[in-house]
Specification:
- There is one protein chain.
- This protein is α/β, with parallel strands linked by helices and 405 residues long.
- It is built from 15 helices and 14 strands.
- The strands form three sheets. Strands 2-1-3-4-7-8 form a six-stranded parallel sheet, sandwiched between helices. A six-stranded parallel sheet has the order 11-10-9-12-13-14, sandwiched between helices.
- Strand 3, helix 4 and strand 4 form a beta-alpha-beta unit.
- It is globular and about 65 Å long.
- The protein starts with a strand and ends with a helix.
Length: 405
């Protein structure tokens, strides 16, 4: 089978990109042909298909002129370059099915009509809430926000739901109404969600299409990182942004009566402000390690006492949890969204009330005082992510593809 994989990014920027690349590896291992369609970027992983990739919008460039901004806004609604370049890759590759991941704002849904016209069946994995809300993570100004649904996109403008900006909110609201009016996403033949929570939330927002449940694929080499470290530490790794709740973790760590070092791995818009907060409040024992990946990251995870996921938004199925469990780690996660499905309290990890610093301190204190839990929970943690294994993922994906085709 020839499968065309489509995603905004062709480098390991986020969980959607990781699922996109893992899917490609699994499909190729089972003898399928895979082609890619994405945007141009210096960080891209090389592929022969990048000759068809489209220009990525530079939203953060302060030197953009008025007409440049208008062009970017136009491409958010309908990207003609993506549409035309996709026609070329279809002509060369002749896919049997296209599998879409995140396409909004960069590639845009303009490609859906091209695929439909060429009678190519489409599957789409949902990684966030963009199809039902102009705010893709349902989170604004430190709180969960669900004001736009169902069919109340206009409230995004009045509540400044996109980056606390009337203009950006207006653009994204217009985009939502435009794509709804065109019915572009109704042309998708099958939707996939890696969490039951996202399926439930989409239904609450009035989404009528059937969504298949399929956990994200996870590929890993089982290596032994068991060598003891000279120090014991708690670990957070992931994006350093408001919705991830890293500030809550810092506040909780500062209240621990017995100091266990906290290592923070990752990058993001709050990196500098979090470091300043640690310095200003004189919070001891916090190390910011920046971005790590592959074996360097796995070593840090494997040697941690436990991993904390303090998210304040409705996580879908984060790889930070899946990877930690696969390495046999205790995960302490907030009780929100898809995290509740991944973490069974007291079995493969522990949970706390999102945003409740005292509850987080209490659970961290409990894990510090009961180090014997590490070995007890380790086999249960590993077993809990077997559903994400390449073999299990492939078999279930093929079932969905057969229904679609």
């Amino acid at each position: 089978m020839k499968i065309l994989l489509i995603n905004n990014y062709h480098f390991l920027r986020d969980g959607a990109a990781r699922a996109y690349f893992s899917m490609a590896e699994i499909l190729e291992d089972h003898g399928h042909e895979v082609a890619f369609f994405s945007t141009k970027n210096d960080k891209n992983i090389p592929t022969k298909w990048d000759k068809y990739f489209v220009n990525a919008p530079d939203f953060s460039n302060p030197s953009l002129g008025f007409f440049d901004k208008i062009k970017i806004i136009g491409n958010i609604f309908y990207n003609w370059q993506a549409k035309n370049n996709l026609k070329k890759i279809i002509k060369e590759f002749k896919p049997d099915i296209a599998h879409l991941h995140n396409i909004y704002h960069h590639i845009s849904p303009s490609i859906i009509s091209v695929l439909k016209k060429n009678k190519i069946k489409m599957a789409m994995t949902l990684h966030d809430y963009k199809l039902v809300c102009p705010n893709y993570n349902l989170f604004i100004r430190g709180k969960i926000w669900e004001g736009s649904g169902p069919d109340k996109y206009w409230r995004c403008v009045t509540d400044k739901c996109v980056k606390n900006s009337y203009l950006k909110s207006l653009v994204c609201t217009g985009e939502a109404y435009w794509h709804k009016a065109l019915g572009v996403y109704k042309k998708i033949d099958g939707f996939i969600s890696p969490s039951y929570f996202l399926i439930k939330k989409f239904k609450e927002f009035g989404f009528k299409e059937k969504i298949n449940y399929l956990p994200n694929p996870f590929i890993w080499e089982k290596k032994n990182f068991s060598a003891e470290m000279s120090e014991k530490y708690i670990l957070y790794y992931g994006r350093l942004s408001e919705e991830k709740g890293v500030g809550d973790l810092l506040a909780a760590h500062a209240k621990l009566p017995e100091k266990l070092k906290l290592k923070i791995v990752g990058a993001g818009p709050l990196a500098d402000s979090l470091k300043l907060e640690v310095a200003r409040k004189k919070i001891l024992g916090v190390d910011f390690l920046g971005h790590l990946e592959n074996e360097s990251l796995q070593k840090i995870i494997a040697r941690a006492e436990f991993v904390v996921v303090p998210s304040r938004w409705y996580e879908n199925a984060p790889y930070s949890v899946i990877e930690s469990l696969a390495l046999g780690k205790i995960v302490l996660a907030s009780r929100l969204g898809g995290l509740v499905e991944l973490i069974k309290d007291g079995q493969n990890g522990f949970s706390f009330e999102a945003g409740n610093i005292n509850d987080l301190v209490s659970k961290m204190r409990y894990l510090i005082d009961h180090p014997e839990l590490k070995e007890k929970i380790k086999p249960v943690a590993i077993a809990s992510v077997e559903i994400n294994s390449p073999v299990e993922y492939y078999l279930r994906l093929m079932e969905i593809y057969k229904k679609i085709i």
